[in-house]
Design a protein that fits this description.
121 residues; alpha/beta; TIM Barrel; four-stranded parallel sheet; 4 helices; globular
Length: 121
């Protein structure tokens, strides 16, 4: 064991529930207790998903093992969110499902950053 904290990046698009559960078991057995849980981009044109959304995915992972789970959040409002309040409500649902950490890139929209340079301080 190296002492380095590790996390597995795990998406559910293109996988079955049973495949995800088996992989989660392998992670746990390999002493990987942290997961970055994301929907993932659609592959091979498949539109069928094993989970309705990321909160359901997080909940299923937590049922397998007591992982520490990170989910995505957005530095600006998610493009599909109706408002900032709606975006925050989605993040709260992810937390309630068992996510303990939210991660994001620093920003998406450079003009927003330029209009608000104090966010860099």
């Amino acid at each position: 064991m190296s002492g380095v904290l590790t996390a597995s990046h795990l998406t559910y698009t293109g996988s079955s529930k049973s495949d995800i559960q088996a992989f989660a078991d392998k992670l746990w057995d390999a002493d990987i207790k942290r997961i970055v849980a994301l929907r993932g981009d659609p592959r091979d044109g498949s539109k069928e998903l094993p989970f309705a959304d990321t909160p359901e995915f997080v909940s299923a992972l937590k049922e397998c093992h007591p992982f520490e789970i990170a989910v995505a959040c957005y530095p600006e409002v998610h493009p599909k969110a109706k408002s900032l309040d709606d975006d925050l409500a989605v993040l709260k649902v992810k937390q309630d499902a068992g996510a303990s950490v939210a991660i994001t890139q620093f920003f998406f929209d450079i003009p927003i950053l330029l209009q608000n340079p104090n966010v860099l301080v």
